[in-house]
Amino acid sequence: MKKEKEVQKNTSMWNKFGSNLQILPIVIAVLMVGGISVTFYLAYIHFKHVTYLLPYISDTGTIPPESCIFGFVLNILSFLLGVAVYIKYLHVEEICKKHHISKNCSYNKVAIFVGGLTVLGINLVANFQETNAPVVHWSGAILCFVAGSLYLSAQTYIYIKISPVLGQRKTTMFRIFLSIVAVSTSVICVGTGLKALSEFTGEDVTKWQADDGGAKLHQISTNSEWICATALLIYILLFYKEFKDIVWEGPKIILVERITALGSPNITAGSSPKLP
């Protein structure tokens, strides 16, 4: 009886989450803005670990203690974003299945793949600081923004294809705009960033000075990164309306067989042990 009540309680908790998915994009936005604001304040204003006006986002989380906060926040953020990407995948699959338009939804698998790469990139940025593992960190950053912008593009393509069913014409036009912004700024960010790094003659990339070489290109790159991140965040926030109309029942667990102590009978699904 006690176990049945616990199961009902856990099921009720899952149902509350599954029927209130619209809070997920908001939590992602609040966590991202709040976390970066804290690390920016600590790195730029309080400790002065970075000295130029607009650093890379990850530059604000390179040196302790802000690196601890930055890594912690981004690890949670990557998990939540992964959940959002998966829910969006299921949402599109359900629309295609319901309206028999699977031919126009083939990009859904592409979208979840590049969405997964985006999550991986965020994890690499979170756990490999620029000053400790620059190659891995930069690879993660490039993966995050390039794959992220491609995710937006794939989603936008899907929206265009299913717009006769889903509607949202004005919102789809806005999504096209955000996708163009994200793709263009990610390319500019990576291109100018790599070029600036090749021209850098200073000692510390987190304290890039005007006479260190490649300063203008570096500033263009950092500005582009912030614009790209903003476009990505706004796009995720647009999931709010759709997630509001989704109920996620979640995965089901079925016990097939339980391995018991030697000499005891196996307990299989639908059976119970015989008591002496």
Automatic annotation (TrEMBL):
GO terms for cellular component: endomembrane system. Pfam families: Frag1. It is a multi-pass membrane protein. The chain crosses the membrane at residues 21-47, 67-89, 110-129, 135-160, 172-194, 223-240. Keywords: Membrane, Transmembrane, Transmembrane helix. PANTHER family: EG:22E5.9 PROTEIN, FASTING-INDUCIBLE INTEGRAL MEMBRANE PROTEIN TM6P1-RELATED. This is DNA damage-regulated autophagy modulator protein 1-like. It is found in: Endomembrane system. It comes from Sitophilus oryzae (Rice weevil). Residues 21-246 form the CWH43-like N-terminal domain.
